[in-house]
Amino acid sequence: MARVWEADPSALFMRRLGKSAAELGKTEDDDGCPDIWELDNGDIAVIGRDLTADYRSRLPADASIAADERLVVIPGVTLRAAKPDIGDA
Q: What is the DSSP secondary-structure string of 33-70?
């Protein structure tokens, strides 16, 4: 079955949404920083901890994770800091 949306691996990073992990005090170095980026095609890339295995059995009934998807967790402050950079729907 064809998907309605497919991630484009050729899309480039355009701009960070919100503040860097260093600005938010959520990292001690440049290794393993949670982040949110807008790509040049309008999609959003999220860098976070892969907790797919931990959450797979606890997903809400109307949520699922495909074989090529991952559930990542980021600090709430990272998303809240990005809010001013995210347009209204």
A: --EEEEETTS-EEEE-EE-HHHHGGG--TT----TT--
pLDDT at 30: 66
Q: What share of the chain is helix, strand, coil (3-state, %, to 5)?
A: 20, 20, 60
Asked whether residue 9 is assigned to any structural domain, the reply reads no
Q: How much is the pLDDT for 89?
A: 65
Number of domains in the chain: 1
Mean pLDDT of all residues in 20-29:
83
pTM recorded for the entire structure: 0.87
Domain coverage including residue 37: 17-85
